[in-house]
Structures are given as C-alpha cells and as structure tokens.
Amino acid sequence: MSHDAPVDAERYLERIGFTRPILSNRETLDELIRLHAANIPFENATSFGQGPTPAGAIELDSILVASKLLGGKRGGYCFEHAKLLQHVLPAYGFPTRCALARVYQDPRHAPSAKTHVVTVTRIGHREFLTDPGYGGLTPTASLSLEELGKPQQTPHGRYRVVAAAAAGIDLGHAPDIDVMVQVELAKGPDSQWVNLYAIDLRGIANIDLPALNWFVSTSPMSMFTQILAVSLAPEGKRITLSNKTIRQREGEEITERAITSTPDLALALDSLGIDLPDQLLSGVASRLQLDRASRDDCVQEADTPDQFGDTFL
After folding, report:
1. N or C, which end of the chain is more exposed by having fewer CB within 10 Å?
2. Are 35 and 18 in contact (CB under 8 A)?
3. Domains in the chain, please, with CATH?
4. Which residues are listed as membrane-spanning (predicted)?
C-alpha cells in the first residue's frame, strides 16, 4: 500500500480486504473489482425507503460517498459505486472516466434512458469497463472494451462486449450508443447471450451527473423509488434481495425465501452487509407492507418481474 495514497483510497483497500501490493495492471484491477463486488453491496434503500421525494436524493460528493460506502455497513447504487471508483482508483495508477449507458431490462424491447453510470478505466493505452455497481448481474471483473465479441471470463460467469450494430437491437431507438455489454445465461447447448446495457463511450462531464442522479434517486418514474434492489457477489455465489424475496444463486442451485417482518428484513439486509438506521429500516419495511404497515404508497411484489425483468434479481 502506498503511503502517498489518500486516506479514502487506503480505507477502500481495507473495506474490500485487498492486502497485496498494488501494481497498475489488469490482474490488480480485476482483483479490486472482484473484492469490491463481494464486499460493498449494491443497494437503493435510501431512495426506496424515502419514496419518490427529495428526501430520497442521493449525495454525490466524493467525501460523502466514501463515508457511506466505506465507513459502515452500507452500499449504494450505480452513481455511488462509480463515484467511489473514480475517487480512489487514480490514487493507484488507474486513470478513470465516466460514461453513461442504457439498460436493456428486456432485450426484446426498447432501452431505458441513459441513466446507468459506468466507469471506464485505462491501463496504458487500453480501456476497460469497471462496473461493480450494476446490481444482480454486475460483472465481477474488468471487461476489455477492445476485444469486441470475445467472451471474457469473470468469477461469476462469462460476459462479452459487442459493437452496437452486432447486438440485435434497433439502433433507431438509441443511435448514440457504441457497444453493448452482454452476459451468457445458462451453459452448454442452452446458453444464450443476453443484452444488459449499451454504453455511450463519449463519456459525460461530472458536472452533468447531479441532475441525472436527482432524477434517478427521487422520481416516481425511476425504478429505484419503486422497488427495493440489493445485491452482493461473494466468492462462488450471488445474493439478491428484491422487495420481499431474498435469493441466493450458487452454481446452478437457487434458493429463495420470503421476508415477512421487519426483524426478518433486518436479518436479510445484514446477510448482504447492510445495517440501516432505525428510521430508514422502518421506512423500507412500511413500503414493503411488512408488519402492520399501511398498504398506501407501497410496492406490489407481483409487479417486479414483469416490469423490471431479472436484471437486479
């Protein structure tokens, strides 16, 4: 660990459990992303628990993001994970820039708006996608943005980056995208490559992020104010909490159970590395209709798969 690294950068390594010497190469970058996805959860408890109001707005100040994601048992959504990476990776010789993506929650339908934020990291003259903040199917290693069409192995399955024209989509819906990130679902003869999100590699200025972040974290049109989405990717498994259902996938085996009470919710969140303040936990439980919570202003569990697909599940 460099003694010249900022305090937050050193806290980041401690938070994810990285103990080896840092070299500015892909092996190190892959290990950082693997440990990040295994130890810092994806979660939207603040926006969901507060509902579509200004109170649910997510702060993007670097110090506040680091305090939340590094200082306790909390995680964040894509804006926060990207902000954290862009705050700490340059301290270890990995220049970064920000880019926007359109999520394809159903590969057969038109994309969403450009509201997913990713980090593009450079090693020498090569660029890699580093995106531990995508949710249940987040890539747990870097993905080369130059090896188009080539399957790339991660600790949690194979991904590939293809040219937009090769993604099987109507480019008329999204003429500004450059590449599509795909994941391989199933294996063997039943395997298929599924579109996850399409990236506009031109990048975006940091000054433009707060307005997008405000919409995504507070608008009633945003999925993040409508469903609870939490995920973590420890070694060999993925654990997700979608509204009142917690699932674990380990290899081909999937187990799931329903959350039935506020204490049960707290235990489920704890298994995902999250400890919410009491008031926020109560807000999340209320919107999930747990215990004696009101049925007003709450989510309907049955709507989640149809509306949002399996992207975060």
Report:
1. N
2. yes
3. 5-218 (3.30.2140.20), 223-288 (3.30.2140.10)
4. none
